[in-house]
Backbone:
């Protein structure tokens, strides 16, 4: 359990060093997202080009990844983001991370740039840098199949053509659909001439208390399976969210000019395209659906951002766009947001045919499809779009008014946050930019949550009204912390307390799981402290890149344009109330009024480096 | 009173349709839930837990607010109210 290695690979010097993360650091950060930011903060200098050889790319498995612990498939990929210029970090499932641990490694830190296309071949205790000329140019599924053909039953994390061509929102892919999707980390792979990390291991993970482990896992499995959430996610998957958001009037539509779209993208229609449901390693939920069009998905994000946000109604068309993004290695969230942005800019005359090379419009499947290919190859207007939100400079300051992004990161999910104020604060303060997976306080919408349960989870004074600003810093703070902790453990958020349920894996469960796997005795508060530590260091990383209070904000449209349709009609974010809410969030987190980690805490955390 | 009710999965599956216009003599959401589960027995397991309490896995909006922000299941209803039932779920 604790003997997995740290591989440091310098692609420029073609040198591999195998070492180990000291136990004191594992106790401070556990693993996954936590240890990744520890190393990133230490190793990345603030003025570097994210696509230059100085950037550091880290693949880090969670503390419990690859064990029997339910849904412990996760790993984080981290680097300075070429899309935002701040923290780049993305969490991913599948089978790769468990295999990396079976090969003897917790974490790989990749430095420099290879002279020619390369891949890392990680097998039991060894790491080799190998040539990848024959794999360069292949789509994400094809290249993984090629590795399996050439090397046997390996697992791989790869970049697609988009990553090779340094598209700033290229993702890292494993399997048919699993992605470390956000922040352009596939482009960091491309910038290092690194096509893939390929791994196969035969080393089991030693467990400190195996009998206790079986007992706890069995108990947790029964607990998870008794929930109503688990079977619904396992039969429908996240497409259910589309119907919910759409019925409510919270689906980002045509670049958030509208907030509701067609029922043709509802889960029951998507189900007609589903071949089968599958899961990641150790998964009890099985929320992933293979589709009949030769790919996997669509998730809620794809339905919303490649469907409603682009004005596309035809389910098959949305699934095809989803599959194309997956094969090219493009982040679906950024793809759908950036395309919708330029469609609106064209409609408004802010960009023209001379720049775009053709007429841009919502609802045109063939146009969207052709632009995705052009982006991935940086052809024509695609070369411009590949620069993502950095195009504000090119398109002009006015274009920023219509950009649905925070800190340069296009919003991750299709949920229009103007109604639920805690959701809005969450995307404004998330450490990688506009993202729901850092702190989405879903319990905000649980109506039947007894007051004592709500107060036990979130603290006192949080109102039941999701449109109220009162004490809404507390749900975000709670969610931020526990989601960071679960990202360090390598467990999927679908079974994290507070994400989909007031039950599921809370700090008490985490404590039991850490103990039976490693023998380490953590107190619940100490696990929460790991999450807080991670968030503080992520903020310190971003501070070094120039992030201040002014960046913890929302798209202009969320402040100034009330939602036009359905239940959410008329709702928007009030600037003054939001500002006060942000101040309260900083206070509860212990940051100063400008949103910076206080000096004493900085010294404490830097002493760990 | 007449109420317009929109249902999403799994409530729509239990009822067999996504939209209902309900003619209702009661006063509160609690009475409406009883009325609906009597009329659509398959809905019972989606609304109530094993102990007969309303499950936490149903969210009901009355017009533009969830009943959590109103009076819970005691929330009063009036002619012309629009209700939405949905399952709490998150993800991406």
Residues:
């Amino acid at each position: 359990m604790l003997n997995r290695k740290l591989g440091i690979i310098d692609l420029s010097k073609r040198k591999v060093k195998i070492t180990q993360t000291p136990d004191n650091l594992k106790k401070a950060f556990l693993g996954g997202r936590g240890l990744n930011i520890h190393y990133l903060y230490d190793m990345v200098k603030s003025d570097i080009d994210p696509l230059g050889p100085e950037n550091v790319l880290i693949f880090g498995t969670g503390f419990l990844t690859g064990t029997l612990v339910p849904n412990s498939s996760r790993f984080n990929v981290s680097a300075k983001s070429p899309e935002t210029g701040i923290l780049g970090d993305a969490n991913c499932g599948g089978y790769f991370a468990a295999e990396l641990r079976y090969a003897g490694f917790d974490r790989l830190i990749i430095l420099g740039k290879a002279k020619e296309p390369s891949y890392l071949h990680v097998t039991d205790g060894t790491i080799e840098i190998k040539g990848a000329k024959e794999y360069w140019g292949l789509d994400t599924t094809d290249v993984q199949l090629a590795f399996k053909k050439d090397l046997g039953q390996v697992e791989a994390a790869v970049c697609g053509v988009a990553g090779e061509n340094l598209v700033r929102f290229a993702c890292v892919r494993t399997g048919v659909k699993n992605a470390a999707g956000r922040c352009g980390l596939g482009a960091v792979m491309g910038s290092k001439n690194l096509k893939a990390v390929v791994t196969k291991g035969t080393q089991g993970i030693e467990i400190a208390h195996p009998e206790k482990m079986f007992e706890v896992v069995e108990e947790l499995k029964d607990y998870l399976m008794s929930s109503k959430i688990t079977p619904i996610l396992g039969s429908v998957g996240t497409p259910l969210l589309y119907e919910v958001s759409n019925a409510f009037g919270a689906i980002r539509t045509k670049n958030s000019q509208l907030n509701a779209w067609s029922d043709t993208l509802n889960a029951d229609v998507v189900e007609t395209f589903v071949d089968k449901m599958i899961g990641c390693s150790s998964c009890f939920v099985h929320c992933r659906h293979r589709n009949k069009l030769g790919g996997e998905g669509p998730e809620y994000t794809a339905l919303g951002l490649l469907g409603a946000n682009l004005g596309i109604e035809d389910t098959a068309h949305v699934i095809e766009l989803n599959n194309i993004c997956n094969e090219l290695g493009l982040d679906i969230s950024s793809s759908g947001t950036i395309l919708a942005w330029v469609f609106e800019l064209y409609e408004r005359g802010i960009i023209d045919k001379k720049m775009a090379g053709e007429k841009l419009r919502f609802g045109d499947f063939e146009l969207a499809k052709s632009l995705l290919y052009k982006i991935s190859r940086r052809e024509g207007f695609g070369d411009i779009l590949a620069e993502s939100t950095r195009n504000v400079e090119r398109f002009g300051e006015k274009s920023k008014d219509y950009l649905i992004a925070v800190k340069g990161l296009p919003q991750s999910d299709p949920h229009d946050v103007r109604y639920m104020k805690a959701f809005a604060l969450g995307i404004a303060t998330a450490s990688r930019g506009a993202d729901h997976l850092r702190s989405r306080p879903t319990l905000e919408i649980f109506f039947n949550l007894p007051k004592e349960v709500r107060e036990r989870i979130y603290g006192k004074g949080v109102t039941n009204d999701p449109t109220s600003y009162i004490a809404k810093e507390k749900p975000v703070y709670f969610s931020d912390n526990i989601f960071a902790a679960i990202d360090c453990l390598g467990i999927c958020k679908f079974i994290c307390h507070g994400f989909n349920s007031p039950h599921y894996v809370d700090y008490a469960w985490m404590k039991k799981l850490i103990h039976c796997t490693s023998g380490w005795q953590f107190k619940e508060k100490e696990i929460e402290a790991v999450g807080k530590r991670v968030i503080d260091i992520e903020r310190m990383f971003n501070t070094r890149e120039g992030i201040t209070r002014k960046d913890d904000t929302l798209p202009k449209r969320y402040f100034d344009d009330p939602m036009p349709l359905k239940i959410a009609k008329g709702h928007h974010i009030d600037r003054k109330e939001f500002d006060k809410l942000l101040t309260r969030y900083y206070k509860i987190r212990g940051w100063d009024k400008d949103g910076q980690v206080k000096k004493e805490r900085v010294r404490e955390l830097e002493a760990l480096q | 009173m007449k109420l317009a009710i929109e249902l999403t999965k799994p409530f729509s599956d239990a009822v067999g349709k996504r939209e209902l216009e309900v003619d209702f003599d009661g006063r509160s959401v609690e009475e409406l839930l009883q009325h609906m589960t009597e009329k659509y027995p398959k809905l019972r397991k989606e609304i109530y837990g094993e102990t007969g309490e309303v499950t936490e896995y149903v969210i009901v909006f009355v017009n533009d607010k969830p009943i959590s922000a109103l009076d819970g299941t005691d929330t009063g209803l009036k002619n012309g109210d629009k209700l939405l039932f949905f399952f709490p779920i998150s993800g991406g």
